[in-house]
Amino acid sequence: MAASIDAFKGMANSFDFNYGNRFLVKIGGAGELFSAYCEQASLPGRSFATSDVKFGTGFTQKMPYNSIFDDVSMTFKLDSGMRIKKFFDAWQNKIHNKGTGYMEYYDNYKEQVMIEVYNRQDEVVYTCTIFDAYPISVASTDMSHSTQNEILKLNVTFAYKTWGSQ
Fold it and tell me: In the structure, what pLDDT confidence band is assigned to residue 25 with cuts at 50, 70 and 90?
């Protein structure tokens, strides 16, 4: 048993791990604006919608029939000019005109979101492209006189059509 634990330790020590703070986010035409302000981003997940299928008089097996994509959440630090907040306010106003009550056509407000993951040598090791994304939730931002040295933050949740990686 000790030999297999030592072998595992040796194998684990030969791998270099990646760290969750080495990423950049780019959103549509705004590109690099978000890289410095995005404090947290989640890479998208995927699961399968399944249906129970019975084989003859025997066993039942779950069979996938569609992909289900998790929403993607990001947290942005807000600068003194509130540019990030203004950007997402404008994007949501483009989706839904509060004055007329009309919703915009999907093709006119969807954007591509890219998350690049870097290793410790600052090389891109994984790129996730989120296709046809839009903000489904821009959370309220809490402010308080007792938090004088805290940076304001904005939580945004995106829905999207699909994603790909390389």
Answer: very high
